[in-house]
Design a protein that fits this description.
Blueprint lengths: L1 H16 L1 H13 L4 H12 L4 E4 L6 H11 L4 E5 L6 H5 E6 L4 E6 L6 E5 L6 H13 L1 E4 L2 E4 L5 E6 L12 H5 L3 E4 L5 H13 L12 H13 L4 H15 L13 E3 L3 H17 L7 H12 L4 E2 L1 H5 L4 H11 L4
Parallel strand pairs: 1-8, 1-9, 2-5, 5-8
Antiparallel strand pairs: 3-4, 6-7, 10-11
Helix pairs in contact: 2-4, 3-11, 10-11, 11-12, 12-14
């Protein structure tokens, strides 16, 4: 009975604390038609202190989405266009020699922002991609022998274009694993596309989002997200899903044994739990249900399962494997 009262109190608290989700969605809807799936995933990453990798053809409002989200929060936004000639110093900053004082001073790079858009991340070579690693994982940057903390909140949203593979550098596994979610975007629906045309052709001035939040509100909300109740059965469900990616035979999926080169790491389990809590928070609920885990599973796992040549030969992707796992693993 006591537990039920706790959950009720938690529900009321989360109902109260998550008021801003509606404000952000309203502002985003003024600028972006459709793409609610993408906006929800951006909010999940933001509330879970994670990062986001977006994959989609050009022109799906990826850049506009993160710019608009950062405009709803009183925060600093920077966009870095990744190119083959980009250097790590262009990203994190560098030391500059001052002849007058005969000393070095630090000039910080564009990574020192709350929202960082890494546009076409797979166009830059490995040393630039790895310069992002420390920033994403440790939330700090080292320039010379000095270490600087990054502002809070700090969210990296990277985009990659799945069409052109010429002149691109595939992201190494260690880099991809740093992204909490990998979201694959699709084209808008026909009705949405008509609205997009109308908005871009008839309006004299393109709408902009208004500031509705402060960075402190996001940091406070993150603490509340961690308080969302997760039952032990849900924890077991998450562990079963991740273990099924490593040992499919134990879950009656022996056909995938030779199709998976590696499964999800413990980071996959942590991120699946955090993302499920954030998803429940967005739905203004104080507890996690199995549907929350299922809703977010593909985004958390699709880039954490390695498929073998046999799988590629049979046109089996990590998404097919996740679908089968979700169908097979027992729902609590």
């Amino acid at each position: 009975m006591e537990n039920a009262i706790d959950i009720r109190a938690l529900n009321e608290q989360i109902e109260k604390e998550s008021y801003f989700i509606e404000l952000i969605n309203r502002e985003m809807d003024r600028v972006i038609v459709g793409q609610r799936y993408m906006v929800d995933r951006m909010l999940i990453a933001l509330l879970s202190n994670g990062h986001l990798l977006l994959e989609g053809v050009p022109g799906l409002a990826k850049t506009l989405a993160i710019k608009s989200l950062s405009s709803t929060i009183d925060s600093k936004f920077s966009r870095i266009q990744f190119t083959p000639d980009l250097l790590p110093a262009d990203l994190v900053g560098t030391q500059i020699y001052q002849a007058k004082s005969e000393t070095f001073s630090v000039r910080k790079g564009p990574i020192f922002a709350n929202f960082v858009l890494a546009d076409e991340i797979n166009r830059a070579p490995a040393k630039v991609q790895s310069a992002l690693l420390e920033a994403m994982q440790e939330k700090q940057v080292t320039i010379g022998d000095e270490t600087f903390p990054l502002p809070k909140p700090f969210l990296v949203m990277a985009t990659q274009n799945p069409v052109e593979q010429e002149g691109t550098y595939p992201l190494p596994e260690a880099q991809v694993d740093r992204f909490m979610l990998k979201v694959v975007l699709d084209y808008p629906k026909m009705e949405e596309e008509k609205l997009i045309i109308r908005q871009n052709v008839t309006l004299k001035e393109f709408p902009k989002t208004n500031v509705v939040l402060k960075p402190e509100d996001i940091l406070k909300a993150r603490e509340v997200v961690r308080q969302v109740y997760m039952d032990e059965k849900i924890e077991q469900y998450i562990v079963d899903i991740v273990f099924a990616t490593r040992n499919p035979s134990d879950y009656g999926l022996a056909k995938f044994k030779d199709m998976i080169s590696f499964g999800g790491s413990p980071r996959a389990s942590i991120n699946l739990a955090l993302a499920a809590k954030a998803y429940a928070f967005i739905k203004r609920r104080g507890y996690v249900i199995p549907e929350d885990v299922r809703a977010i599973a593909k985004d958390v796992l699709r880039h954490r399962i390695g498929v073998t040549y046999e799988a590629e030969a049979e046109n089996i992707t990590s998404e097919h494997i996740i679908d089968e796992i979700l169908n097979r693993v027992e729902v609590p």
